[in-house]
Amino acid sequence: MPTQNKRDFNAVADQWDQEPRRLKLAQDVVAAMRQALPLNRDMEALDYGCGSGLVTLGLHPFVGRIAGADSSAGMLEVLNRKIQSQSLANVLTLPLDLELQRLEGSFDLIVSSMTLHHVQDIPALIATLSKALKPGGWLALADLESEDGRFHDDPTGVLHHGFSREFLTGEFAKNGLTDVAVVTAASVEKQGADGNPRRYPVLLCVGHK
């Protein structure tokens, strides 16, 4: 990601969870993932671009262990404080440069929510995540459906204005994933510049290795 178009998530980490709309979105995405995926307590899971861990912590009771991976040290510090305060034994954090497309280890489940639009090369990312799945593993990626660029009030760090269903399912299929499906996981309502509310669907694409 070019430095001049990279959002400083460290600067907003401590206030990240104070936005009710953000909390509701994470809850909706977790609910959609629980419905779409055969979660079980034997799963080793990864939340790619976990931020403050809203989705990570929403999923942790339903998997064996989950790592929250992010390139923002500030966000991981917020998640670490939650882990410590709740004495969670099955949640850990993983510093990771989201742009390098390198991922160590293998997982039964890899999820991501509202991270794709901050990553430049989405085909390369989906390929990397697919390779990191164990045989039989699941990939579940949630992000905005294609929109006209008005969702983000501050476009810093926004490299894509959402994604189409066809693009997501196509990239999953190219990487050999099966049982590929897309559902509307959530809908975010925001007031437009004209004062009228607008709804922005958030898609969840899942696939099986």
UniProtKB/TrEMBL annotation:
<dbReference type="InterPro" id="IPR029063">
    <property type="entry name" value="SAM-dependent_MTases_sf"/>
</dbReference>
<dbReference type="GO" id="GO:0032259">
    <property type="term" value="P:methylation"/>
</dbReference>
<protein>
    <submittedName>
        <fullName>Class I SAM-dependent methyltransferase</fullName>
    </submittedName>
</protein>
<dbReference type="GO" id="GO:0008168">
    <property type="term" value="F:methyltransferase activity"/>
</dbReference>
<keyword id="KW-0489">Methyltransferase</keyword>
<keyword id="KW-0808">Transferase</keyword>
<dbReference type="Pfam" id="PF13489">
    <property type="entry name" value="Methyltransf_23"/>
</dbReference>
